[in-house]
Specification:
With about 90 residues, this protein is an all-beta fold. The chain is built from no helices and six strands. Strands 1, 2, 3, 4, 5 and 6 form a six-stranded antiparallel beta sheet that branches. A hairpin with a 4-residue loop joins strand 2 and strand 3.
Protein backbone atom coordinates (compact mmCIF):
# COMPACT_ATOMS: atom_id res chain seq x y z
CA UNK A 1 0.00 0.00 0.00
CA UNK A 2 1.39 3.38 -0.99
CA UNK A 3 0.01 6.65 0.32
CA UNK A 4 1.49 9.81 -1.21
CA UNK A 5 0.78 13.53 -1.31
CA UNK A 6 1.56 14.80 -4.82
CA UNK A 7 2.61 18.24 -6.06
CA UNK A 8 2.37 18.66 -9.84
CA UNK A 9 4.01 21.04 -12.27
CA UNK A 10 1.34 20.96 -14.96
CA UNK A 11 2.03 20.99 -18.70
CA UNK A 12 5.76 21.36 -18.19
CA UNK A 13 6.58 19.95 -21.63
CA UNK A 14 4.64 19.06 -24.77
CA UNK A 15 5.39 16.09 -26.99
CA UNK A 16 3.47 16.08 -30.29
CA UNK A 17 1.09 18.66 -28.76
CA UNK A 18 0.35 16.35 -25.78
CA UNK A 19 0.96 18.09 -22.41
CA UNK A 20 3.15 16.14 -19.98
CA UNK A 21 3.30 17.12 -16.32
CA UNK A 22 6.02 16.43 -13.76
CA UNK A 23 5.22 15.57 -10.13
CA UNK A 24 7.03 14.95 -6.90
CA UNK A 25 5.62 13.63 -3.66
CA UNK A 26 6.28 12.44 -0.16
CA UNK A 27 4.54 9.49 1.37
CA UNK A 28 4.73 6.07 2.93
CA UNK A 29 4.85 2.45 1.85
CA UNK A 30 3.43 -0.45 3.84
CA UNK A 31 4.04 -4.06 2.88
CA UNK A 32 2.19 -6.71 4.87
CA UNK A 33 3.53 -10.24 4.74
CA UNK A 34 2.61 -13.23 6.86
CA UNK A 35 5.96 -13.03 8.67
CA UNK A 36 6.41 -9.27 9.03
CA UNK A 37 5.23 -5.74 8.22
CA UNK A 38 7.53 -3.32 6.43
CA UNK A 39 6.92 0.44 6.66
CA UNK A 40 8.99 3.09 4.91
CA UNK A 41 9.11 6.68 3.74
CA UNK A 42 9.06 7.24 -0.02
CA UNK A 43 9.74 10.20 -2.31
CA UNK A 44 8.20 9.54 -5.74
CA UNK A 45 9.25 11.49 -8.84
CA UNK A 46 7.26 11.03 -12.00
CA UNK A 47 5.69 12.19 -15.22
CA UNK A 48 1.99 12.08 -15.99
CA UNK A 49 -0.61 12.92 -18.60
CA UNK A 50 -4.19 13.78 -17.63
CA UNK A 51 -6.74 13.26 -20.39
CA UNK A 52 -9.21 16.12 -20.88
CA UNK A 53 -12.06 14.02 -22.25
CA UNK A 54 -12.10 11.34 -19.53
CA UNK A 55 -11.09 11.44 -15.82
CA UNK A 56 -8.05 9.19 -16.37
CA UNK A 57 -4.37 9.85 -15.86
CA UNK A 58 -1.40 7.73 -16.98
CA UNK A 59 1.94 7.95 -15.18
CA UNK A 60 5.47 6.64 -14.77
CA UNK A 61 7.38 7.09 -11.53
CA UNK A 62 10.45 6.13 -9.59
CA UNK A 63 10.45 6.36 -5.81
CA UNK A 64 13.40 5.93 -3.46
CA UNK A 65 12.23 4.32 -0.19
CA UNK A 66 13.82 4.42 3.25
CA UNK A 67 12.51 1.37 5.11
CA UNK A 68 12.17 2.11 8.83
CA UNK A 69 10.15 -0.72 10.41
CA UNK A 70 11.15 -4.37 10.62
CA UNK A 71 14.67 -3.43 9.51
CA UNK A 72 16.44 -0.37 8.16
CA UNK A 73 17.12 -0.50 4.44
CA UNK A 74 17.00 1.44 1.19
CA UNK A 75 14.76 0.36 -1.67
CA UNK A 76 13.47 1.72 -4.97
CA UNK A 77 9.90 1.44 -6.30
CA UNK A 78 9.25 1.79 -10.03
CA UNK A 79 5.69 2.15 -11.33
CA UNK A 80 3.84 2.46 -14.60
CA UNK A 81 0.10 2.85 -14.24
CA UNK A 82 -3.17 4.73 -14.49
CA UNK A 83 -5.38 6.62 -12.07
CA UNK A 84 -9.14 7.16 -12.33
CA UNK A 85 -10.64 10.29 -10.78
CA UNK A 86 -14.07 10.00 -9.13
Amino acid sequence: LNLDHLWAKRNLIKIDNVPISFYYAIGMRWIHNYDYDSIGLRVPLGVQHIFKEVPIQIFMEIAPVMVLVENTAFDIDIALGARYFF
